């Protein structure tokens, strides 16, 4: 979730039918075994999901060793798991983290981007866009618990979240460093960064491919909090509790409604029947 | 007044004929008695206007006890009083403050927003939009002298001003806290906040409905200055004097002109005949 | 060069055929004498160009005593010199500075803007726009080495650069102070400033015509570094070396490509053949 309409380009303009990828299970997506009480671990090989239905919160952990490269399979499993959580009204918040020590995610999988055919490039890149769209437009509260390196696509994922907690470890560098790798960050990577740290800081960071150590990341606004490594998860949970205390649906869909009301209708919000009108 | 064209959505797109409200006197609007020399106090029951023609400055004080709720009557009287000042070339600046101790304004009047019929909602909400448009597009220099709590719609009013002075009192909380109340801030509340404190800070403040105490409000950029409570008014006046020293009309209408010139005409500004071309 | 697509208005919308000015040599433009090895000083009467082909960097110095007013001749010579450097693949970076002690540039030449005929105004103002477009959309890395006063148009030029180094001298004031002079800064001056220091700071700076001394300029983000006066040039060179270490063309044209790819084509970047697709 994010203040999406502040983006310079409409996220919705990017959304295209994605039937080839959406319809079938790529990789080895494995639905949760058992009962449907929501309390069992479900997910897939590459994305662990640890639900806490009582709190309304789930923790999703990337598990694609050694560095959580965003392979097509990981992206697919991630989007499916996220969609399940979105559809399950039990959950209002998700914490994103990593099951691989020392890294949050190394970003896009370069092996998906060269030596393949155009159809594969198209499929892969659509999956990257889909991930970003799902996260940035999510109704869930998203918090990134970052205990490892967080470059490029890993950083993008964290930027789509509502709050970022970073481990105070000099190895926990974060940034969109595509330029240094000879890769060009798409405009929506850039816009997401601009929304987070402002135009000028984003300009410099993108052009030089800067990776920020924790103190600098905090100062420039790339993350919201830096804590000792062993407190990243607990901090994320306690920040999430703060969000969960916000009443109703307002913190999720509030910003979108008034675009409609303001443009099309003179009607004010009707607090007594929020469920009907607040859907995006 | 504000750098209006930097807004993400055109304020003008919102401006609609507003004849039902504009034409008639709602509430008990009471024009200034007497002479027309501009020196007499005029205004209405709910908005006191204290003009200082020599300085070219007027002080407007909300007076709708106990908490300066923005009722339809207050909004109407406020807009009418502001229009009078706009039309009176004697005045170039207005200081907005409160006649009710402990509060600048508590914001929108919730009793106008539930238990009424759609026509009333439409009328009320148009009045809120009108207030915002009048303030944010005003040719007057506007300074908010805030000596009390300043939540929600009260905060919005202050954000439309050119400068905000806040009393250094822990009770003087300021912010768009609609989310906490189960109300959704319209997109133009959001955009006004984004323009003031930036995208990321606005995102977080809106989603959590944050109310900032003075020191934090200053740090995040929600206000421009925090001073002891008994110096709020005098500080506002001395800041206003700084603005009044700016020559001509430039500080008011300057930003708009070049939108026209740049897009439609190759002509440069003609400093020797500013009055003709600078009208918005 | 700058993150141009982040601008609120398309720079390209401003670009018009400019044949009357481009085709002929205004002023006394004097091409470099001699050999074509790129190592000789070339330029013109009003813009000195000191190339360092080995480093891929050239230094351009305004030389229009006493205050480097941006006369039509200076603008023309500057654009021509810049175009030469753009076309010469030897050069990837340019440092902008001044040959006149105590001033970077005093900005637009007021004598070009009054007492002339409309055709002259049009020609002059197009030249100003052309300069801004050339700089802000340049493929070259641009660094401003500012050892003197930098008001108005001088400030605009520095804002189009990728990095600004300012001398730590109280006389080195920098800002868009047009308002104080009774002149209105065009919207693209404003947008360039907003992109650099953010909306709220730009709003206040423009409305009051603020000129920032070095420490304040650094704090507000108007410049990136403040150094002792005798280290301005060397600092600019060492920052430039940092930029020159970025591989390939990514730091120049990277941002633009994905606008095309994302909107028109599902193809990902092809790192092994960047030259073909990365042209703007």
UniProtKB/TrEMBL annotation, chains A, B, C:
Q: Which keywords accompany this UniProt record?
A: Acetylation, Fatty acid metabolism, Isomerase, Lipid metabolism, Mitochondrion, Transit peptide
Q: Its catalytic activity?
A: (3Z)-dodecenoyl-CoA = (2E)-dodecenoyl-CoA; (3Z)-hexenoyl-CoA = (2E)-hexenoyl-CoA; (3Z)-octenoyl-CoA = (2E)-octenoyl-CoA; (3Z)-decenoyl-CoA = (2E)-decenoyl-CoA
Question: Which BP terms from GO are recorded?
Answer: fatty acid metabolic process
Q: What does this protein do?
A: Key enzyme of fatty acid beta-oxidation. Able to isomerize both 3-cis (3Z) and 3-trans (3E) double bonds into the 2-trans (2E) form in a range of enoyl-CoA species, with a preference for (3Z)-enoyl-CoAs over (3E)-enoyl-CoAs. The catalytic efficiency of this enzyme is not affected by the fatty acyl chain length.
Q: Does the keyword RNA-binding apply?
A: no
- Lineage of origin: Eukaryota, Metazoa, Chordata, Craniata, Vertebrata
Give its localization.
Answer: Mitochondrion matrix
The enzyme's main class, written as a single word, is isomerase
Q: What protein am I looking at?
A: Enoyl-CoA delta isomerase 1, mitochondrial
- The catalytic activity of this protein is classed by the Enzyme Commission as 5.3.3.8
Q: How does it assemble?
A: Homotrimer.
């Amino acid at each position: 979730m994010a203040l999406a309409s502040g983006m310079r380009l409409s996220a919705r303009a990017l959304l295209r039918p994605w039937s080839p990828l959406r319809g079938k299970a790529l990789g080895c997506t494995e639905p949760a075994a058992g009962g449907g009480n929501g309390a069992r671990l479900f997910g897939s090989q590459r994305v662990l999901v640890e639900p806490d239905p009582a709190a309304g919160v789930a923790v999703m952990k990337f598990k694609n060793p050694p560095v959580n490269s965003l392979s097509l399979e990981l992206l697919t499993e991630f989007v499916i798991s996220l969609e399940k959580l979105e559809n399950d009204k039990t959950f209002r918040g998700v914490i994103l983290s990593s099951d691989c020590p020392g890294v949050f995610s190394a970003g896009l999988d370069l092996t998906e981007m060269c030596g393949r055919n155009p159809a594969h490039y198209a499929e892969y890149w659509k999956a990257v866009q889909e991930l970003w769209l799902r996260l940035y437009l999510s109704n869930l509260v998203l918090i990134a618990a970052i205990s490892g390196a967080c470059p490029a696509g890993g950083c993008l994922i964290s930027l789509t979240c509502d709050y970022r907690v970073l481990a105070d470890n000099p190895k926990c560098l974060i940034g969109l460093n595509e330029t240094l790798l000879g890769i060009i960050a798409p405009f929506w990577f850039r816009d997401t960064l601009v929304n987070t740290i402002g135009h000028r800081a984003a300009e410099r960071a993108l052009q030089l491919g800067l990776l920020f150590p924790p103190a600098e990341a905090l100062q420039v606004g790339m993350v919201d909090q830096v804590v000792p490594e062993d407190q990243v998860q607990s901090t994320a949970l306690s920040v999430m509790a703060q969000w969960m205390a916000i009443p109703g649906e307002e913190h999720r869909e509030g910003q979108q409604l008034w675009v409609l009301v303001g443009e099309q209708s003179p009607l004010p919000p009707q607090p007594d029947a929020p469920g009907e009108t607040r859907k995006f």
